[in-house]
What does this fold into?
Amino acid sequence: MENSPQNSNLELDARINNIIAKEEGYDEPELSQEDRERYLKKYSFGALVFSAIYFGYMKDKIFLWLSIVLGIIFFPVLFILPFFARKRAWRMRQWRSFNHFRAVQKKWEKAAVYGAVIFVAVFFISLYFETKILNGFLNSSNINNMNDVKQLQEELQGSIEN
It folds into this structure.
């Protein structure tokens, strides 16, 4: 077989991709087609946590807008979209190889874990301070039981009507 310029370009591209793969840490052996399909059908925690950001990065405009609009209108849809996220991300974007795609997905999954932990921590910290503020308000208003709450409500209602 002759060594045509096209073959040498393909060989050069393969070598460059191997060097990049080693540098970026995804130079694992390629998966079989069956294993790829199984991987693409897995739930994407990164797509769940980062939703619109994830779909925007994967250049999936349809799911980007679906996650924004349906997230506002019908929130549970955000839990369904990640079932299809990996397969769509594989089709929507240019990837150097399947291992490159897997490496990027692993980074999204790791970031999603950190993001979820940070979200939960911020939620509980804000909940703690909110209850402290509310408790301080109730104590300063001398509210000890439900009768005091009703009395405060009537006073506020009377001040609004006047």
